Amino acid sequence: MNKVRKSARVVLRTYPVGMPRVEDFALEMQEVLVPSAGQVLVETHFLSMDPAPRMRMTAAPGGPPPLPLGETVIGRGAGVVIESADDRFKPGDVVAGELGWQEYSLTPAAQLRAVNPGLGPMQWSLGILGPSGITGWCLVHRAAAVRSEDTVLVSAAAGSVGSVALQLAKSLGARTIALVGGERQRQFAQIELQADAVVDHQSPGFDTELAAVAGKGIDVFLDSIGGELHNKVMAHIAPLARIVAFGFISAYNAQGRAAEYGRMYELIRKRAQLRGFLVADYASEFPGILGELSALLASGALRNFENCDSGIDAVPRSFVRLFTSDPVGKQLVRLRGSGPP
């Protein structure tokens, strides 16, 4: 294969100990190759900042396969096809998928999905019209089957998934409780998401606040955090509550053994249901879900919230901020313009 252009990429320099640091990453240049059969060369326009890659940034046994040091960091992106050696895509097509933290990605076509530019800006395919929105929709309408009479607590409610799930639950008439971290997230949940109640786990009075807003009990608990926060909420679930565990953020930066999902006694005593969730289980429904989300956005019934940094050199600090600040909405890094050239 012939070398065609240079591309900047972010590689993992050292495995983070506890919270990730900007110094754990390095910026390198690499040669971009012409695609061979079944491959597509994508010019990345946006990168999605998600906490999940942190799980691969460790050599500790018992977890997912570690990301090798010196390798491009994994991550979702959206961009434009520059060259294609696969009939499924042609130059100019807008695509999204696991592009990695790099300006150009040579990717198997099977790992990409076409993006319909008519549904909204390209970057929405990484958030509200992509994994975040689809996950939020499936949590509310499928996994938890939220009803108008429910009290619904959403953990990480200011994040990309939580903000969608809370809005959708509220649109069904449910009473919504936003679990947030920090004053910025509290104000966001109150003003922008219009949650019926907000509790801040960083507040000294968190336990008292949680007990007060739980009322007669939490019917639906959508949890991406786990650990001790999960256990504290479980003390306030209603009889026959539905708890959906779709993440374990509390363990991502843990040193030693992380606190597990627990409180089995509460499950038994309240005859509650605790289930795991993977959005991939609903893949056959994705096209219809995207159409519904797009219609909700167009009507104003659903709002999109995102924050965007610029430049490949901004990627490490944007990723680190997921864990060290109180971000709201979908976190993105723009590498190029918002649409095809």
Q: How many H/I helices?
A: 8
Terminus-to-terminus distance: 25 Å
Q: What average pLDDT do the residues reach?
A: 93
Oligomer: single chain
Largest sheet, strands/sense/barrel: 7 strands, mixed
Strand tally is 15
How much of the sequence is in beta strands?
25-35%
Secondary-structure element string: EEEEEEEHEHEHEHEHEHEHEHE
Structural class: alpha/beta
Low-confidence stretches: none
What would you report as the Rg, rounded to the nearest angstrom? 21 Å
Cα shape: globular
Helix percent reads 10-25%
Description:
This protein has 341 residues and is α/β, with parallel strands linked by helices. The protein has helices spanning 131-143, 160-171, 183-192, 206-214, 227-234, 264-269, 286-299, 315-324, and strands spanning 3-12, 25-33, 39-48, 76-84, 94-98, 104-108, 112-114, 151-154, 175-180, 197-200, 218-223, 237-245, 273-276, 306-310, 330-334. Strands 3, 4, 5, 6, 7, 14 and 15 form a 7-stranded mixed beta sheet that branches. Strands 10-9-8-11-12-13 form a 6-stranded parallel beta sheet, with helices on both faces.
Topology:
Blueprint (H helix, E strand, L loop, with lengths): L2 E10 L12 E9 L5 E10 L27 E9 L9 E5 L5 E5 L3 E3 L16 H13 L7 E4 L5 H12 L3 E6 L2 H10 L4 E4 L5 H9 L3 E6 L3 H8 L2 E9 L18 H6 L3 E4 L9 H14 L6 E5 L4 H10 L5 E5 L7
Parallel strand pairs: 8-9, 8-11, 9-10, 11-12, 12-13, 14-15
Antiparallel strand pairs: 1-2, 3-4, 3-6, 3-15, 4-5, 5-7
Helix pairs in contact: 1-2, 1-7
